[in-house]
Write a structure and sequence with these properties.
DNA polymerase, domain 1; alpha/beta; EC 3.1.3.3; 6-stranded parallel beta sheet; two-stranded antiparallel ribbon; magnesium; 44% helix
Amino acid sequence: MTAYYGTLLFDFDSTLIRCESLDLFFKITQNNPTLSKQIEHITHLGMAGEISFAESLSQRLALLNTTPTALQHFAKTLINYITPNMPELIAWAHHYFDIWIVSGGLTPLILPVAEKLNIDKSHVKAINLQWHDQHLHADPENGFATDKITGAKQCLSLWQTPITIIGDGYTDFQLFEANIAHYFIAYCQHVERANVITQTRYRAYQPAEIKQQLELLYEI
């Protein structure tokens, strides 16, 4: 596909979907409210930039008691959590942009939603997993297990400029701060983070508002 207006990078959790996928997995499958609260707290600390992403990921995976099969089964249910009206936005954006999902989430959880949104699996950049010693471990090869900046830097040759990142988290803003993305649109429908929305004049609370921002930015 020829991208006439550059590349859109979408965050996954609390942007393309209306929840934090790994948090929801713990809540639904682990049957341990105390553990679920602990996971949510760790996620919040990481997304707010209060602990490093690598530390947040390591702590959460250490608490994860599951199998690849269970993870894949749960992943299929996430299409029910796609943000309302997001499919229409993505369908429109496909005409003007090269679309990627760039996430600190787990690749197996993202792929069914990507397929539903007609985003090729080769355009999903997130944390790949390895199954070793009866536990899931993050694969460090593509950089996303370290942090989003490290992973994104390995993808720069794949992305046509200008690049716009759309997401709710501080890690999304950091791609803009690091000059990887030229624009950052804070997506605030599901979570509004004070340390994120103060960093940009571009905010959206509905997919239609993302479309409006893009039309203004790129004069579509």
